[in-house]
Amino acid sequence: MGLMKSHFGSHIGLSWKINNEGADIVSSDFPALTMASGPYNYSYIFKYIIIGDMGVGKSCLLHQFTEKKFMADCPHTIGVEFGTRIIEVSGQKIKLQIWDTAGQERFRAVTRSYYRGAAGALMVYDITRRSTYNHLSSWLTDARNLTNPNTVIFLIGNKCDLEAQRDVTYEEAKQFADENGLMFLECSAKTGENVEEAFLDTARKIYQNIQDGSLDLNAAESGVQHKPSTPRSALSTDQTQNKEGCSC
Amino acid sequence: MAEKETSDLLSSGSQPNNPLSRKLNKILETRLDNDKEMLEALKSLSTFFNENNLRTRRNLRSDIERRSLAINEEFVESFRVVKEQLDSVYADVKAVNECCQDMSSRLKAAKDQTQDLISQTTTLQAESQKLQLRSQVADAFLAKFQLKQEEIQILRGTRDGSLHPEFFSALARVKQIHNDCKVLLRTNHQTAGLEIMESMALHQESAYERLYRWTQSECRLLSGDSPDISNKLCQAVEAIQDRPVLFRYTLDEFGTARRTAIVRGFIDALTRGGPGGTPRPIELHSHDPLRYVGDMLAWLHQAVASEKEHVQTLLKKCKQTALMLTAVQDHVLDVLNHVTEGVCRPLKVRLEQVVVSEPGSVVLYKLANLMKFYQGTIGNIIQSSSALVCTIEEIQTLCLRMFFNTLSINAGRLLEKVELPPADLGPTTALTQSLQLLRDVLSSHDSSIVPLDARKTDFAQILSSIVDPLLQMCSVSASRLNTVDMATYMINCMYLIQNTLALYEFTDQRLEMLQAQIDAHVDTLLSEQAAFILNRTDLAHVYGIVQQHNPAQGPLSDIHGLDAITIKSAMARFDNYLASPDSYTLPQCSLLLSSKIRESVKKHSIELICHAYKQMYKSLFDESNNYTEPHTIVPRTPEQVQKLLA
Ligand SMILES: Nc1nc2c(ncn2[C@@H]2O[C@H](COP(=O)(O)OP(=O)(O)OP(=O)(O)O)[C@@H](O)[C@H]2O)c(=O)[nH]1
Ligand SMILES: [Mg+2]
């Protein structure tokens, strides 16, 4: 659990850095303008979970995404860990709240409880270990059963830097992804290849779902939380309970 | 030279007192060409003395006198003009002088008059310069120690209670001025310092009050799912840090709002679930205790993590200051304690319900582990002394107690109706069932999500709660058996327990203890086995005496029952045993479940037999025992016997 703690601290540190950048825009004489440039640090919070067999590199992917570093000797995750980062999609600042689950079987019962209300699920296998690919259908079943119908599921074939040890072809996995309607990329937490893309593409897809109304933000556990600083009109449906006229 | 010679000659040669000579001398001495006056006079004389005659010579004197008079008259006449002119000049100069004197005196008067004015002007000028400097100082002072009108306006705020964007810089100014006054107090401007300080203190007080009211109402709005913490609010919280009491109240207000939010969110997740029922309400799974409890605690874990981020966002601008007695990090934890307090009740009620619903030992144990896991996981985010973590801990303790309770009830039942051992001396159904329970508990123990050392502490208790009563039960049920049956039965039971435990961690000590107990029973069994063989071959009596024999008692062959004939016939029976040793095995030994123990009993009992044979053999060959031809009585050497039995 010590790991969990350290993770926690560092991620928050990062997101604060970004927050502070955002904060510099404010303090204008015109409240309206302040509103427009965003008195808040982000407009949305998206919740992600990362799932997959132990050792496929889930924690490394998260670390690469939040810290832009590769953690070569990452210990097994105990239970669930947590990381955040603020990204931008279509000019909107979005805070990703990412839950990295333990792949070890004994934690399955625990990690299943974290699927609830995830807007995005990153399902990871290791391209050098076929068994981790073979287990995908069981992970997918869990993901489908325990999340919303419109949760975006993104398949990641990790460790693509180890081409020589490849055990699962790109084509095969791509076909699996297509058959199951998943987005798919091969990534490397080590080199960072495609890592950014996987997390951002997922966010773009979620954002698109919000835009075309297929994701109802009003729902308590949609995995997306919205800040009232952006004009709602572009977005879906009835947001009456919003405190639009925040007194600042 | 010549003149001198002449004068010398004259003086020496003549009488000096003679007037004529003197006259003559005088004339002689006269040097006319050298006497300029004379020459001039003569020249002048020649201009008017044209005729040298007596009359003229007689008149010469008067002529000259007349002439002199005329000249003088002319001279006088000329001088009179000069004098008249001089007189006029004199008069003029005198007038000028008078004029000048008048002017000078006038000037002097004027000077006397203006001196005062000038010195007055100079003083005034100096004073004016001094005043100008003072005015500059005063302006600078005012700029430094006074608020601008608009700043006062900003601090006063508007009627609707909103804060001007410049509010914080104005507040900072007031604070700065108030601080700077301390410098004034150290100089000789104490009065000014005190006055300004007082007025700034007033401004500050009212500004802080206004700020607090604004912050308070902002915080009250933060009870939504995701609070909208504006940068302005963060700034406000930072500013209000200077008033620890107000700061405390603000954090309380924020905590209360979030507490409401998290309770509502929790209840919604429990009872309403997501949109259109996905994800489903957590309570829908209340029939599955592990999932139900796991979902609740996972939801809380995530909520707590989010809340921590919210609090950190709120306090992101705050720094450690002298006024703040606790570090920002501690405030974060304080607020989190407050925020998470609200969910304790709904959580506790539900957890208790699950625990007391008798879900069975294994589930209780798993639940206790799950709660222990979350106690640690959530305790890493908020203080482990917080109400939420304490609540989880409390129920975890209850759950564990309930678990051990079921184990002891189970143990009580075992000892209440002890079954008799079955005919095959194998495990009773109670034992088999209990071992299954032990396996179930230990497997969930083994795959536990709780860290190793936490698991270790439960372990001794689990083992003593299950294994000790089992062993007790076995002993009780074996109590009416004969020695061999008892040893066999106990070995079998303990062997099964050992087998079960061997699969799990932390059992080494137990296994060792069981092994020692098994060994003791095996010892009993193998000596019984050896005795059985000796009895069946009628050698028991012989061996008994040989063992106790003392040479002082006389030769063995004299002792009853140890005569050569009796021994010989016993040895013949022993030969039969050697021919088919297996048929001399105790029936109970073949009921031993462990083939290893079976082999061990056999092997060690043979060793005992060989040892006994060797001792008897030696005694028969001992001459003091008076056996004639002992090799006819015991034809086989101990080595041969050992080989045959091997
Ligand atoms: N070469 C290579 N190694 C990787 C990559 N990603 C992860 N690894 C290695 O794989 C091992 C496991 O990575 P983790 O991130 O701990 O795996 P995990 O999925 O989080 O495992 P659990 O926490 O047990 O579920 C680590 O030793 C990493 O060094 C990658 O992209 N390339
Ligand atoms: Mg991991």
From TrEMBL, chain A:
Highest taxon above the source species: Eukaryota
Subcellular localization, as worded in the UniProt entry: Cytoplasmic vesicle; Early endosome membrane; Golgi apparatus, trans-Golgi network membrane; Recycling endosome
Membrane topology: Lipid-anchor
Region (Disordered): 222-248
Keywords: Acetylation, Cytoplasmic vesicle, Endosome, Golgi apparatus, GTP-binding, Hydrolase, Lipoprotein, Membrane, Methylation, Nucleotide-binding, Prenylation, Protein transport, Transport
Pfam family, any one: Ras
Cofactor(s) this protein cannot do without: Mg(2+)
Claim: Protein transport is one of the keywords in the record: yes
Catalyzed reactions per annotation: GTP + H2O = GDP + phosphate + H(+)
Primary enzyme class: hydrolase
PANTHER family documented for this protein: DRAB11-RELATED
Family: Belongs to the small GTPase superfamily. Rab family.
Name listed for the protein in its UniProt record: Ras-related protein Rab-14
Automatic annotation (TrEMBL), chain B:
Cellular component aspect of the GO annotation: Golgi membrane; Golgi transport complex
Domain Conserved Oligomeric Golgi complex subunit 6 C-terminal: 190-645
Residue intervals of the Conserved oligomeric complex COG6 N-terminal domain: 45-157
Keyword annotations of the record: Golgi apparatus, Membrane, Protein transport, Transport
The organism's place on the tree of life at top rank: Eukaryota
Amino acid composition bias (Polar residues), ranges on this chain: 8-20
Region of interest (Disordered), ranges: 1-21
Gene Ontology BP term (one): intra-Golgi vesicle-mediated transport
Topological relation to the membrane, as annotated: Peripheral membrane protein
Subcellular location: Golgi apparatus membrane
Assembly notes: Component of the conserved oligomeric Golgi complex which is composed of eight different subunits and is required for normal Golgi morphology and localization.
Annotated family: Belongs to the COG6 family.
UniProt function note: Required for normal Golgi function.
Annotated protein name in UniProt: Conserved oligomeric Golgi complex subunit 6
Biological source species: Paralvinella palmiformis
